[in-house]
Amino acid sequence: MYLVTDSGLAGGRSLEDIVTEAVAGGVTMVQLREKNLGTREFIELAVRLKSTLKRSGVPLIINDRVDVALASDADGVHLGQSDMPCTTARRLLGPDRIIGLSVENFEQIEEANRLDVDYIGISPVFATPTKTDTAMPFGLDGLARAVRMSVHPTVAIGGMNEGTAAETIARGTDGIAVVSAIVTVASPREAASRLLKIIDDERRV
Amino acid sequence: MYLVTDSGLAGGRSLEDIVTEAVAGGVTMVQLREKNLGTREFIELAVRLKSTLKRSGVPLIINDRVDVALASDADGVHLGQSDMPCTTARRLLGPDRIIGLSVENFEQIEEANRLDVDYIGISPVFATPTKTDTAMPFGLDGLARAVRMSVHPTVAIGGMNEGTAAETIARGTDGIAVVSAIVTVASPREAASRLLKIIDDERRV
After folding, report:
1. pLDDT digit string, tens, across residues A67-79
2. Is residue A84 within 8 angstroms of chain B, CB to CB?
3. ipTM of the assembly?
4. How far is the alpha carbon of A109 from chain B, nearest alpha carbon, in Å?
5. Chain A neighbors of B82, CB-CB under 8 A
6. Which residue of A has its CA nearest to B81?
7. Which residue of A140, A148, B39, B77 has the fewest CB atoms within a 10 Å radius of its CB?
8. Tell me: the pLDDT tens digits for B9-54?
9. Which of B70, B84, B85 sits opposite A92 (nearest CB)?
């Protein structure tokens, strides 16, 4: 269960608090996505989140910005198709840091199969209001095909919530990435905990 | 004579053409400043400019983005006070790449004196329409004081044009940084050439 944070959605609450709660509820990976912060503020926030996550062992992934990941000693980056090419990012980050790549169609999954990435984000599975620049949704059948095609672990992104988690996990994806279903609710801890239960129940089927 | 480029000001002309002309007119350093490009496009543009500049030996400096500088093998970065801290940038870029730092007041010049940077940008000397987020202008007397205070070479930024270049150089600054006076004119080459003559004439005084 992969939390994608966005301080624009946090509604004035601190991201550290949301992340701490979400991890207590069972989140196992955190991505920091900030499109409107200056570089210094972005780094400072990443350093604070890294420190928040330290005891839990949950990795911190930085969206897009390899400079911020290096400066904050984050665990890796998540790259979109218009971000830095994966090969360049691997060269700058070294062999050990995590690189995730968003794929928006089946061609990009084939390309990703030839790249040194640690997971791919199938994006989006469903249409979603938190990202407006996304490609045509894969849908559940598309997701199942994507999971079969990929040599890398897959994370389903886009429209993941308590209503969609079970059917998504049933298609074989390794993880689901959640934004608003955890960030925008009153109790991120309870939301994460309920989602985790849905995932675990589905996995036991 | 330090050209700061901005494709938003280029009016549809290619930055490569503007830079080629400006270098032919006498520009000795080029900074690429892009606040609205995706990372991949930014890197691709930097790689093209680096290739454009290769034969001239003129260094390419990337504004703010250490990741773009590393990915494009640029010659250095120019950092503002809200960009990556200089010490972190030096660690990521190594000892040989150029780091420039914008300073907006005398306190920041004292701080910069203790930092491993290659030059400071005195910003702004005059009020300017191309940057709207800038601090109170130094003015010519402030520039002269800044130049005396700094242990690093200085570049005057903000309001540099054919009308202000001579009096600016007369205050002892090592260079002037020009944006619109070269980027927005019909012939960047002639504009650069006229500015260079003004600088050289003033230096001979």
Report:
1. 999 999 999 999 9
2. yes
3. 0.92
4. 19
5. 38-41
6. A40
7. A148
8. 888 899 999 999 999 999 999 999 998 899 999 999 999 999 999 9
9. B70
* Distance, CA of A170 to CA of A99 (rounded, Å): 25
Provide the token pair at B163.
Answer: 């009308």
pLDDT tens figures, B109-168: 999 999 999 999 999 999 876 666 668 999 999 999 999 999 999 999 999 999 999 999
Residue of A nearest to B63 (CA): A39
Q: Do B67 and A65 touch (CB under 8 A)?
A: yes
> How far is Cα of residue A135 from the mean position of the Cα atoms in its chain?
17
Q: Is the pLDDT of residue A20 over 80?
A: yes
Cα gap A141→A144, rounded to integer Å: 5
Q: Is the Cβ pair A66, B70 closer than 8 Å?
A: yes
Q: Across all residues in chain A, what is the average pLDDT?
A: 95
Instruction: Kindly report, residue by residue over A126-167, the tens digit of the pLDDT.
Output: 987 666 666 899 999 999 999 999 999 999 999 999 999 999
Task: Please give the residue of chain A at the shortest CA–CA distance from B88.
Answer: A71
Distance CA(B134)–CA(B104), nearest Å, equals 8
Q: B65 to chain A nearest CA, in Å?
A: 7
Report the predicted TM-score, pTM, of the whole model to 2 decimal places. Answer: 0.94
Spatial CB neighbours of B148, under 8 Å, sequence gap ≥ 6 = B172
Which of B18, B104, B105 has its CA nearest to residue B53? Answer: B18
Q: Which residues of A touch B67 (CB under 8 A)?
A: 65-68, 70, 84, 92
Q: Is residue B111 within 8 angstroms of chain A, CB to CB? A: no
- Is the CB of residue A93 less than 8 Å away from at least one CB of chain B? no
What confidence score (pLDDT) does residue B107 get?
Answer: 98
